[in-house]
């Protein structure tokens, strides 16, 4: 006589193949608010005008405290695009190079970003640099750009201190 056994196994949910999220293209640069050229004529350091002109930064430099941008805050400008619709969690984590070693700055709050296919979306993060430059003599800012918790890009800004 043959005995038959019936083995019951719990059913596994069929999720299908895992699909990778579409790639994201990231272009990054730094900007700041500074004085326009016409505002700097006759500018008084004891009562300066508000800084209202956006300037793209290739470096933070304290060679001329008025003529060359050396702001207390920089704006990380990100241009994001993807070939198909995508929602992502975007965050940034700045670090500063101090005496040859990298030191993490304060991570900025992340945000959810929705990208439309083929369109470019701009996101901005304000990064305070004053304390790290003046109090700690930082000589470089590097910002890790995180997409869904993983580093997708990095933007760097040289810092040139005064004499």
Write the layout of secondary structure elements.
Layout: E1 25-34, H1 37-40, E2 53-57, E3 60-61, E4 73-81, E5 86-98, E6 101-104, E7 108-115, E8 121-128, H2 130-135, E9 140-147, E10 150-160
Parallel strand pairs: 3-10
Antiparallel strand pairs: 1-2, 1-4, 4-8, 5-6, 5-7, 5-9, 9-10
Describe this entry's structure for a reader.
- The chain is mostly beta strands and 163 residues long.
- Helices cover 6% and strands 48% of the residues.
- The chain has two helices and ten strands; from the N terminus they run βαβββββββαββ.
- The radius of gyration is 24 Å and the shape is globular.
Provide a brief overview of the structure.
The chain is mainly beta and 163 residues long. Helix content is 6%, strand content 48%.
Key traits:
163 residues, mainly beta, Immunoglobulin-like, 2 helices, 10 strands, globular, disordered N terminus
Q: What is the number of independent domains?
A: 1
Give the CATH class: Mainly Beta
Radius of gyration, in angstroms, nearest whole number: 24 Å
SSE class: mainly beta
Largest sheet: 6 strands, mixed
H/I helix tally: 2
CATH superfamily: Immunoglobulins
Q: SSE order in H/E notation?
A: EHEEEEEEEHEE
Helix content, binned percent: under 10%
The geometry reads as globular
Using the 3D structure, state the CATH architecture. Answer: Sandwich
Beta-strand proportion: over 45%
What is the strand tally?
A: 10
């Amino acid at each position: 006589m043959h005995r038959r056994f019936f083995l019951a196994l719990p059913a596994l949910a069929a999720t299908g193949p895992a699909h990778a999220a579409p790639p994201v293209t990231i272009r990054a640069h730094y900007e700041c608010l500074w004085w326009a050229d016409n505002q700097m004529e006759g500018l008084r350091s004891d009562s300066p005008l508000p800084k209202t002109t956006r300037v793209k930064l290739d470096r933070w430099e304290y060679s001329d405290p008025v003529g060359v941008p050396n702001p207390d805050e920089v704006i990380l400008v990100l241009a994001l695009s993807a070939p198909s619709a995508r929602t992502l969690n975007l965050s940034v984590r700045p670090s500063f190079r101090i005496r040859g070693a990298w030191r993490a700055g304060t991570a900025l709050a992340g945000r959810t970003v929705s990208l439309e296919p083929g369109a470019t979306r701009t996101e901005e993060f304000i990064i305070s640099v004053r304390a790290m430059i003046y109090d700690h003599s930082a000589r470089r800012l590097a910002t890790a750009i995180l997409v869904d918790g993983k580093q997708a890009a990095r933007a760097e800004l040289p810092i040139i201190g005064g004499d």
